[in-house]
């Protein structure tokens, strides 16, 4: 045959090279394992293997009260814990029919956007590092450290924040915190400009990202992508806009959309979200209303599932500890509420049978669904682009395996 | 809905002269002469925020030298990781509960701070001490004496006055005083109360409206 020389040797012999990438591979952002079948350097088949970080969060939550399962959500997407806390709490509040006060809503929106910035910073740092840009990594961690210090001042922890509480938040903001945050938002656009100077037009970066991992809008929707990974393909879907929760309906922001649906567009979408989140935080600081931070209907932190026979008398409650009959909150039924976390759509599905602890908690985690789109992105491409594709989806295995 | 900007194709001058790479190099060169952000950790200590959730401690009553705990079991009930173990007996005469053992498994703890928030007498606290790594498990399985000595260590290291120290989880910032038990209504800074809470900061007009989208 005269075409023999054009074909790689392995394919001619009908053999493919199997490469087990991960779970210890540093560029897979955790413990993701990919079973790759290679023809030379071309990926013929890609099969993601997940579950190495499974801790059974959903099952654990079935033996806990709603308040107790909130700290577990810190450990889902551990680089944007605040957004997970808010997602869980919004879902529980919908189930229990509690409306948080307006100040708490603004504070939650503020910390959500802070965690979006810190998550995108970590994404940019590692994505760039995977592709070969070391400097951006160090610059991003400089700003991320700043946000984590602000979290520490607000709630006493840098990563596992456990900040929200059913019916509000646990700690009020201080004047010093707001001023530091305002100073951060003043300086942050400049820092984003620095990252852009380093990589935005860099020819190596462009070669590694433009035209790689292309997903059309239709494909992206079919694969169930959400968040910036979906918006990079030009689909206008953002829960903050389309099913607003907390203070998002009162704030002004735009949803950046890509056009080509490649790695570069997903990168550009997240870079624009830096500016939008920064803008949102500034609006929250400006409009922050006065008032309580915890709803009067909020259940006690010790959500004792056992029924109490004490009923509150409204005329007596002034000056006394308000005693509410806990059990009345635990209505039967189920609820699915999703929120926009930095990775995409994080949904919590609760089935309540009135016992005070969830009968079932299901988490729709964006990372799990995003990993499912890796075969579509990688197959037919080069092995070096697998890394760029994983990075552009921004997956966190703690959330995927949960 | 804003479209993101894509990089325009660079011209031939930029291609030959490596302009975009020169720009990046100029930035890193500039950073070479700016102030370092790295903290030389063991020598330079970070400043830990008030209310940091670190090593566990039982507050020592300055008058009696004993723990303040009344064995109400609220902390053990609320703990998501079930790391607090308390046993107690009831004094037959005064009917008061007396704590026999109070143990916290620091390795199970997830540092959520629920225990200090629900404690009605401010007996348990997560201190600002963060250096307590250990080579063996028994030394991070805290019994009552160890927890009390943790409190002494915290006071010694931080230099805080046990009479005026208020942890933000004992008396949450912005909490309604009326909803708190009597022992938790501590004197706090003005800013922590509902009346004196931090207000929004008005921004300069130019920055408060108009999107930053597409800024380069």
Describe the structure in your own words.
The complex is a heterodimer of chains A (402) and B (216). Chain A has helices at 9-12, 57-61, 66-73, 81-96, 102-131, 134-155, 175-199, 203-209, 217-222, 228-231, 239-242, 263-287, 366-371, 374-378, 383-393, 397-401, and strands at residues 17-21, 33-39, 42-49, 164-165, 168-169, 256-257, 332-341, 344-353, 358-364. By secondary structure, chain A is α+β, with helices and mostly antiparallel strands. Chain A has 2 domains: 4-49, no CATH class; 57-401, Cytochrome-c3 Hydrogenase, chain B (Orthogonal Bundle), CATH 1.10.645.10. In chain A, helix 3 (66-73) runs antiparallel to helix 4 and helix 6 packs antiparallel against helix 7. Chain B has a domain at 56-192: Alpha-Beta Plaits (2-Layer Sandwich). The two termini of chain B are 18 Å apart. Residues 207-216 of chain B have low confidence and may be disordered. Chains A and B meet through helix 3, helix 6, helix 7, strand 6 and helix 12 of A and strand 1, helix 2, helix 3 and helix 4 of B.
